[in-house]
Amino acid sequence: GGLTDLLARRLRFGGLAEQRIEEEYLRILRFFRFHAIYGDPDQGIDAEGLAACAAFSAGIETLSAERIGAEMRKLLAAADPAPSLAAMAQSGVLAQVLPGGDPRAVAPLVHLEAGRPPRWQRRLAALGGPDITDRWRLSRQESRNISHIRDALEHLQSPAVLGYRLGPELAVDVILLRAALFESPLPPHWAAEVARGAAAECPVRSADLMPGLKGAALGARLKELEGRWLASDLRLGRAGLLGGSVFLFGQT
């Protein structure tokens, strides 16, 4: 008798929700994931199923980190996971899988993405909360990417600098997240600026400072000049950066 529900995009447990959940606690997370993918957001989430998920949410602790992480990746990669995540927070389920997570920035983030391919790491960073590398069994690279995104949110680097430092994919994540979290507009021409930064190379190289400098002194000077270049939004050229070095190194 589920055809009517299918046509209406109405997601419900088959039979008693409590019984289905006690048979397999992973169904709690699948309830929210399936709603995000197949459900009609205008109808809202099934109240009976939501109540059962809330009542049995402690059972999520019996699930392995791999299974939790796999389900949450799929949920966060849905076209619009915001309604399901809000329901998870309301029912206490989100606190079980991501303590301290807050879904409020996800809806504006999805709007700002404007049809860009969804990235679960970006949505996870929007949720906040503590490091969950072990809790979700994230790979080193996944954990590193999320850390880079969160760290970059604390600094006001330009789109070009973000593109240079993080590469285009993570730079886009940071810019969209900033706008969603701080309720601010996207920077003008930000996509083109990210691309400019991602393609840029610092115009000063070690050979430009040798033989006047070497070893630790060479490394420190290169870092200083790169800092000046970044502060110029990647616009200073080699001559501008080395202008203060000519006298020091006796170059002509």
Walk me through this protein's architecture.
The chain has 252 residues and is mainly alpha-helical. It contains 18 helices and no strands. The radius of gyration is 24 Å and the shape is elongated. It starts with a helix and ends with a helix. The C terminus is likely disordered.
Record the SSE blueprint.
Elements: H1 3-8, H2 17-23, H3 26-38, H4 47-55, H5 65-76, H6 82-91, H7 93-97, H8 106-113, H9 120-127, H10 133-136, H11 140-153, H12 159-166, H13 168-182, H14 190-199, H15 206-209, H16 215-231, H17 238-242, H18 246-249
Helix pairs in contact: 3-5, 3-6, 5-9, 8-13, 9-11, 9-13, 11-13, 12-13, 12-14, 13-14
Number of helices: 18
Structural class: mainly alpha
- Please give the alpha-carbon distance between the first and last residues: 86 Å
- Unreliable stretches: 245-252
Q: Main β-sheet: number of strands, strand sense, barrel status?
A: none
Radius of gyration of CA atoms, rounded to a whole number? 24 Å
Helix-strand pattern: HHHHHHHHHHHHHHHHHH
Q: What descriptors fit this protein?
A:
single chain, 252 residues, mainly alpha, 18 helices, 63% helix
